[in-house]
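Ticket opened by: R.M.
Priority: normal
Category: complex prediction / small molecule

The reporter submitted a protein together with adenosine-5'-triphosphate and asked that the result be attached to this ticket for the collaborator who will pick it up next week. Submitted input follows.
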Amino acid sequence: MNDLLPAQAARYRRLVECVAGVLARYGYSELRTPVLERTELFVRTIGEVTDIVEKEMYTFRDELNGESLTLRPEGTAACVRAAIEHNMLYGTPQRLWYEGPMFRHERPQKGRYRQFHQVGCEAIGFAGPDIDAEQIVLCARLWRELGLQDVSLEINSLGDAATRAAHRERLVAYFEQHRELLDEDALRRLHANPLRILDTKNPAMQQMVAEAPKLVDMLDAESAAHFDGVRERLADAGVACTLNPRLVRGLDYYNRTVFEWVTTRLGAQGTICAGGRYDGLVEQLGGRAAPACGFAMGLERILALIDDGDALGGLQPPAAYIVHQGEPAARFAVEVAEGLRDLGHAVVVHGGGGKFAAQMKRADASGAQYALIVGEAEVAARKVGVKPLRVAGEQQMLAPDAVAALLSGHC
Ligand code: ATP
Ligand code: MG
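Result attached by the on-call engineer:
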């Protein structure tokens, strides 16, 4: 779990603002849910035989009522729970997004943390391929606006429940034939969740898994048409994609479209965004059946992809730093600062006293454009000394209005 120091926090905030801006342009509204949910919510939705539920959840018992609670490992379940709980799904489809920390007890490594952050997006109540494509196009726009390079789209379809059942049978039979190649994880999943074996990262199993029966070859007519519809719309939008028949999601609730945005620039942790359709989830959580589609992006991985000195920039220095000496000057400094802040300027008033020279060092270190200097003479004249810190220039005495005009020229 990471501390975000000021410069990193500023980048994080700007990234979220940028994502929020794009989401707003597609009509998505923000939803904020608690970081804790009943454990059962995740077990029911994510699925028992998944990495997350088997070994990654931070789960504890609430001492007060004995309830089992879990720090959220992802956002979709809570988003759907909240939408049902607040009757948001009657008659109106919803486009929702969320942002915040997620928690998974994984082995930490670059791009993989125990507290990480996601922005997620859920469109609930939409059945057609247009919404799957819209979400993917939205992502492509975001990568473009963030200046991300070397990001590509992989896509697959998991079909409907009957197709998955038929595929599952063929898959289990195939894996049985190659039992000697299966590792411990795969053997455990063989009957509980064979689809997940396709997702294995074990190099010794790659060849065998690559030749396994492919779900996308067995799609029912409707799912095939849906999948074609998504790909046609992506082509219309000029978004290139690669069919990856082995792409399955880590969570159980997906059907039909699944997609991942991947990069080769982050080593093993190359997936920056993943999602797909989950038509059965709302009903499974007790709501009136509603088809849905969503995705989540990992903000740490996206930040890692954005080079330093980029559009997100670093810390924003103040416009001015006020140094002052003596009690009347300290009070006049605050008055001037408040006036400038009324106009939207960032102004730091020196705190903690000290000699002028030491205060000027702080002013310089703050990155401010100007030091504003207030001593006895300035208080008497109701003016401040203004000294440019980033360019050569003489100190001059100016009234607060003139200082405001000067700072505006720098905005
Ligand atoms: P992986 O295969 O890398 O474990 P996942 O399938 O578990 O990923 P999702 O549940 O789909 O991941 O989460 C969506 C996105 O959130 C991922 O694509 C990734 O960018 C990010 N993410 C997931 N787990 C972590 C983590 N532990 N640390 C940082 N980012 C993460
Ligand atoms: Mg994972």
